[in-house]
Amino acid sequence: MQQVFGKMKVFITRQFPKSGLELFEKAGIDVEQWTEQRDLTQQELIDKCKDADALLAAGRIELNAEFLEACKHLKVISLFSVGYDNVDMEKADELNIPVGHTPGVLSKATADTAFLLMQATARKAFHHHKRIAKGDWEFFDPLQDLGQELQGKTLGIFGLGNIGYEMAKSAKGAFDMKIVYHNRSTNEKAESDLGAQKVTFDELLEKSDVISVHANLSEETEGVFDADAFAKMKRSAIFVNTARGPVHNQSDLKKALEDGKIWGAGLDVTDPEPMDKNDPLLDYPNVCVLPHIGSSTNETRDVMAVLSARNAIAGLQNKELPARVKPE
């Protein structure tokens, strides 16, 4: 049996952490890694996968119906991410290709990024750093570029799952923030532990001093934060998104900031990604943008590598994936 597995091969679309590579080596599975500092074209990916039994996909690679049909021989697709909106799941299910992902393991790291962006935006931290770099730290003006405090304010969570819970817990512990949330389901743990209150979407917009987005990207959530939504928010509100860029309409967000409909924004995700270096949002004093680093810690990436490797190995061995994306 081990000899059969030893002939199997996984193609990985990035250079992969050692913690995951060691598991493939132990299982007797050959590994090929993409080492160029650019994304593969779809045809390049198809060509690579023709010689592989499994795909481990890292980065924003579209695994659409055309790709899946061309690579329907794959025994498993393992994603180096929680999100799976880049996969045509209907087609994958039709072809009986199991898809694994990494839920849970990056919750704290991503929530910490949201917590960082909330604070950095509230105090215009990125803007003040730029002032120093430009030599604009001389005359003291007590009315210049003031931020706002978070103590006792209301945090609204859009999508209160594992990541949203960690964000709410940090905000409650550090600033005694009141927690409201909008979910399809009730989060009894958050209500019990944090006194969180479930509200309608309009109530979330109207009540929150900070809104932090932690929902998956879907037809239901795509573009939900648009001009109408921003118009219903407090003019002093901060919008934070560490989930997926298309959950907010970026043009509408710019307009809302320019018109003073909301006070500021902290983004770890944008639409499009990567963000254009000349995007005017990067120069707004009340906006803090990061390059999608939610899970970017040594510890989290190692755990993600282990889980995504275990998903791939299980699929190659015709076993149940530890973390399979469940069909809708």
Topology (elements, then pairings):
Elements: H1 2-6, E1 9-12, H2 18-27, E2 30-33, H3 42-49, E3 54-57, H4 65-70, E4 76-79, H5 89-94, E5 99-100, H6 107-122, H7 125-133, E6 154-158, H8 162-175, E7 178-182, H9 188-194, E8 197-198, H10 201-207, E9 210-213, H11 227-232, E10 238-241, H12 250-258, E11 264-267, E12 287-289, H13 298-316
Parallel strand pairs: 1-2, 1-3, 3-4, 4-5, 6-7, 6-9, 7-8, 9-10, 10-11, 11-12
Describe the protein's architecture and organization.
It is a single chain. The protein is of the alpha/beta class. It has a seven-stranded parallel beta sheet, with helices on both faces. The radius of gyration is 22 Å and the shape is globular.
The low-confidence runs, each spanning 5 or more residues with pLDDT under 50, are 1-6
Helix content range of the residues, please? 25-40%
CATH superfamily of the largest domain: NAD(P)-binding Rossmann-like Domain
The CATH topology assignment of the largest domain is Rossmann fold
Shape: globular
Structural class: alpha/beta
Strand count, sense and closure of the main sheet? 7 strands, parallel
Q: Kindly estimate the percentage of residues that lie in beta strands according to DSSP.
A: 5-15%
Mean pLDDT level = 95
